Amino acid sequence: MADRLSTYRSKRDFEKTREPKGEASVKPSKRLRFVIQKHDATRLHYDLRLELDGVFKSWAVTRGPSLDPHDKRLAVEVEDHPLDYGDFEGTIAKGQYGGGTVMLWDRGYWRPEGGLSPEEALAKGDFKFTLQGKRLRGGFVLARMRRDRESGKRTNWLLIKHRDDHAVTTDGARILDENATSVASGRSMEEIAEGRGRRPRPS
Questions:
Q1: For a disulfide at 75, which of 1, 59, 155, 196, Cβ 3.0-4.6 Å?
Q2: pTM over 0.90
Q3: Extents of the domains making up the chain
Q4: SS3 assignment, position 51
Q5: How many Å separate Cα 66 from the centre of its chain?
Q6: Pair 105, 182: CB distance under 8 Å
């Protein structure tokens, strides 16, 4: 576990950030968990985190998920996060890595789709999965791009909604506008930034 989180820890000064260190025990679950955090950092984006092998595999989805299969959302792969990050909501201090406000926008469970294991699908660059969250449901795919924009410095994927009963044909991003509060605390981004309202309840 320590090796899986070494990059995560090296990017953060835990004397200055309230983000979890990844040392707390997390209640085991029979199902794989996922969380999406709305993150107002240098640029507003949504962090998709899927539990796998004891950590959260993570992607920064620049424009947020869409329910329209025609939309291809850039998803930049970032470092693995600890499972207790799934309950984190608050403000990362200015000047720290990822400084800004973090909201628990959605959470629930996920399962892999297709004949490959999640590890094999990720290695292949064609990772299909189904979400069962409070806001997002149905099938999605993460498709790795052959060439990224930083000449190999980062791994870019595309997040695409599958055609199913949960897909829409127009305005796929409306779900983001219609759900502007935390699924865990009911707070807005402004309330979280100001430290107002109740703290989120653990998942």
A1: 59
A2: yes
A3: 6-11+30-194
A4: strand
A5: 14
A6: yes
